[in-house]
């Protein structure tokens, strides 16, 4: 059966793993090919282009093809974590390239840029997330090679206008990479909005079950850094292995429905606590009073996702204490899984992260919404 059809919606294709039926067995689940090396045919030719798993292998390629279909990309590259993916992009830049990124985004990405700048590999400037004037001011035309934005962004879930950022980056001669981890392609397609690279920690919504780490980059074929990024992945040996790729295929089949459920739960949760007396602020792009709401409504076409932060009133230690009191929310970092997580973000991201002490980062899953609301209520009551 054909692997691909252009007439079906991306979620139909994803749900059926690109309509793959295993020709040998009829299995509706794609097989996992776990080989590290691939035999040549009688003419010493490669059979399907595979030579050695560090360069590429069938199960990983299948998962990449599903993601490229969802993203509207020509190609996707899977790596063994989100960090490996962003490291590969920075490694692919020319020496001494100028990089512009947000002052608040995933903190380990910022630490990586710091390290590379300290070692003289890159130059970097930061701008406050969502502030397009500050982005424009940070660009050095002809010298800035990469603009790295994250939207919605870790911390306060601030929103950056992808189309406007793409225009500014391109005017300066730079490539725009969008970390769209919190907004998977069932809601935002950065390439359609003008971005050059769509980047995800596929550990999160794409994987969705908190059982492996993965990262993915998607682009159009003419993207100038693409060949170098692929080469870096081969040198570093950071391609996503077969088993994790197979799990990812399993997960991508239900991405749109999981994301929809998380978004629905999160909206109800945000609305409930936004009106609560002991809550200082609910930072959720789906709420009309979030500063990025209008842009989010434009570029998150199918729900605002499950990520939010809640700032609680009371003593400095109250939020920290609350993270220890929940019985349904699991006190763990990460996001985008079917289970709801809560974390005292400053403890995880560090004192220098700019995250307020009274902020709880919450990843809403697919559980019963009444259980989630009741759990947060009881944690508030327990720390009153
Ligand atoms: N980008 C965002 C927005 C993240 O939240 C994370 C991890 O939490 C990463 C990138 C890094 O991904 P990974 O943990 O898969 O390396």
Task: Describe the overall structure.
This protein has 13 helices and 12 strands. With 384 residues, the chain is of the alpha/beta class. The strands form 2 sheets. It has a 7-stranded mixed sheet with strand order 1-7-6-5-4-2-3, with helices on both faces. A 5-stranded mixed sheet has the order 8-9-12-11-10. Helix 6 links the parallel strand 4 and strand 5. Helix 3 packs parallel to helix 4 and helix 11 packs across helix 13. The site of pyridoxal-5'-phosphate has 14 residues, from helix 3.
Task: Itemize the secondary structure elements and their pairings.
Elements: H1 10-15, H2 58-71, E1 75-79, H3 82-91, E2 97-102, H4 107-118, E3 122-127, H5 132-138, E4 144-150, H6 162-171, E5 175-179, E6 197-201, E7 215-219, H7 226-236, H8 242-252, H9 255-274, E8 279-283, H10 293-299, E9 307-312, H11 318-325, E10 330-331, E11 341-344, H12 345-349, E12 359-363, H13 369-382
Parallel strand pairs: 2-3, 2-4, 4-5, 5-6, 10-11
Antiparallel strand pairs: 1-7, 6-7, 8-9, 9-12, 11-12
Anisotropy-based shape:
globular
* N- to C-terminal distance: 61 Å
Total number of helices: 13
Approximate helicity band: 25-40%
Query: Strand-and-helix sequence, N→C?
Result: HHEHEHEHEHEEEHHHEHEHEEHEH
Number of strands: 12
The largest beta-sheet arranges its strands as 1-7-6-5-4-2-3
What fraction of residues sit in β-strands?
15-25%
Gyration radius over CA: 21 Å
Hetero groups in this structure are: pyridoxal-5'-phosphate
Structural category is alpha/beta
Give the uncertain stretches in residue-range form: 1-5
Q: Could you tell me the mean pLDDT?
A: 96
Largest sheet properties: 7 strands, mixed
């Amino acid at each position: 059966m054909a692997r691909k059809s252009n007439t079906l919606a991306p979620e139909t294709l994803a749900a059926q793993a690109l309509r793959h039926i295993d020709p040998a067995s009829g299995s509706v689940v794609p097989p996992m090919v776990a080989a590290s090396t691939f035999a040549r045919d009688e003419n010493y030719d490669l059979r399907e282009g595979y030579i050695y798993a560090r360069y590429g292998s069938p199960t990983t390629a299948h998962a990449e093809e599903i993601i490229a279909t969802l993203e509207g990309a020509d190609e996707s590259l899977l790596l063994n974590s989100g960090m490996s993916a962003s490291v590969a992009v920075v490694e692919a830049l020319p020496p001494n390239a100028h990089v512009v990124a947000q002052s608040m985004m995933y903190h380990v990405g910022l630490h990586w840029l710091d390290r590379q700048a300290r070692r003289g590999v890159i130059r970097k400037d930061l701008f406050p997330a969502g502030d397009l004037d500050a982005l424009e001011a940070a660009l050095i035309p002809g010298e800035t090679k990469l603009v790295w934005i994250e939207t919605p962004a870790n911390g306060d879930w601030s929103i950056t206008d992808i189309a406007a950022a793409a225009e500014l980056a391109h005017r300066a001669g730079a490539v725009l990479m969008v970390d769209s981890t919190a907004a998977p392609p069932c809601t935002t397609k950065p390439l359609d909005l003008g971005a050059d690279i769509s980047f995800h920690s596929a550990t999160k919504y794409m994987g969705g079950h908190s059982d492996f780490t993965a990262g993915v980059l998607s682009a159009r074929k003419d993207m100038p850094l693409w060949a170098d990024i692929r080469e870096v992945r081969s040198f570093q040996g950071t391609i996503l292995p077969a088993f994790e790729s197979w799990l990812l295929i399993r997960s991508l089949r239900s991405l749109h429905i999981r994301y929809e459920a998380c978004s629905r739960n999160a909206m109800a949760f945000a609305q409930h606590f936004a009106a609560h007396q002991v809550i200082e602020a609910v930072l959720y792009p789906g709420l009309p009073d979030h500063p990025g709401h209008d842009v989010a409504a434009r570029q998150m076409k199918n729900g605002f996702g499950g990520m939010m932060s809640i700032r609680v009133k009371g003593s400095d230690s109250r939020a920290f204490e609350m993270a220890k009191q929940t019985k349904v929310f699991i006190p763990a970092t990460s996001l985008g899984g079917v289970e709801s997580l809560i974390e005292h973000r400053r403890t995880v991201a560090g004192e220098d992260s700019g995250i307020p002490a009274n902020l709880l980062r919450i990843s809403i899953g697919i559980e019963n919404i009444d259980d989630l609301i009741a759990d947060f209520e009881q944690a508030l009551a327990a720390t009153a």
